[in-house]
Amino acid sequence: MPKRYFDRLQTIDHLIRIKGTGTPAALAKRMRISERTLFEFLKMMRELGAPIEYDRYKESYYYAEKGGFNVHFSQSVLNEVDL
């Protein structure tokens, strides 16, 4: 998977957390992806357990529960006991 896939995921996640996505059309345009691709991202995020909802009044996606995605590599430091 290309790095931009994870970058997009993190951007969508951030915008959902701050309730700043705008409408699906606006978010797709901002992300420079099609609405269909946006809906695929949202579907995948929901399948991974994200409680994503849409507020029609505020025109923004949001998480129904606190949380978010954390996609990065964490390096472990082994000590002598682990060896």
Automatic annotation (TrEMBL):
Domain of life per record: Bacteria
Protein known as: HTH domain-containing protein
